[in-house]
């Protein structure tokens, strides 16, 4: 093998695999937030990890729900709290495992009987799979 091929081989072995940019994760988070706020269950469900997601809603934890079950819980939550438009606060790709990422959302709702908006914090955990960033976990906190 020539020195040039050795250098190329060493470079390829040492180079980290390429991952979608931060902006791709941000696009996925925005798509999820908009679909959930608009009540588009087909998109919300389609963005979830096929084998199931972890869901935590105001103290109730479900370790592994199928996408259709998780979609139903999230839709029910919005309906009970008067709907709302989730707003993206930030996204980040995990430093230790670049195949993990997360988004923080702010969810102001029009809760029936409340004097003003009730604001929830929503954490959405993403996993990078063959089809792109998919939702692996959702946590809704008061």
Q: Uncertain regions: pLDDT < 50 for 5+ in a row?
A: 4-18
Our count of helices gives 4
Order of helices and strands: HHHEEHEEEE
Q: Largest sheet at a glance?
A: 6 strands, mixed
Cα end-to-end separation: 62 Å
As a percent range, the share of helical residues equals 25-40%
Total DSSP E strands: 6
The averaged pLDDT comes out at: 86
Strand content: 35-45%
Shape summary: globular
- Please compute the radius of gyration using only Cα atoms: 19 Å
Please state how the strands of the largest beta sheet are arranged side by side: 2-1-6-5-4-3
Structural class label: alpha+beta
Topology:
Layout: H1 3-14, H2 22-38, H3 41-46, E1 53-57, E2 60-65, H4 67-80, E3 87-93, E4 100-109, E5 118-129, E6 132-141
Parallel strand pairs: 1-6
Antiparallel strand pairs: 1-2, 3-4, 4-5, 5-6
Short description:
The chain contains four helices and six strands.
Explain what the structure shows.
The chain is α+β, with helices and mostly antiparallel strands. Helices cover about 35% and strands about 35% of the residues. The protein is built from four helices and six strands. It has helices at about 5-15, 20-40, 40-45, 65-80, and strands at about 55, 60-65, 85-95, 100-110, 120-130, 130-140. It has a six-stranded mixed β-sheet with strand order 2-1-6-5-4-3, with helices on one face. The N and C termini lie far apart (about 60 Å).
């Amino acid at each position: 093998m020539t020195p040039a091929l050795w250098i190329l081989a060493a470079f390829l072995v040492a180079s980290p695999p390429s991952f979608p940019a931060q902006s791709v994760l941000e696009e996925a988070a925005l798509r999820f937030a908009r679909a959930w706020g608009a009540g588009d269950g087909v998109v919300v469900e389609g963005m979830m990890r096929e084998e199931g997601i972890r869901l935590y809603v105001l103290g109730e934890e479900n370790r592994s729900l199928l996408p259709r079950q998780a979609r139903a819980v999230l839709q029910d939550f919005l309906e009970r709290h008067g709907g709302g438009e989730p707003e993206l606060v930030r996204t980040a790709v995990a430093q230790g495992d670049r195949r993990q990422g997360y988004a923080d959302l702010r969810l102001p709702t029009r809760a029936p009987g409340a004097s003003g908006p009730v604001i929830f914090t929503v954490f959405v955990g993403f996993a990078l799979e063959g089809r792109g960033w998919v939702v692996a976990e959702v946590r809704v906190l008061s």
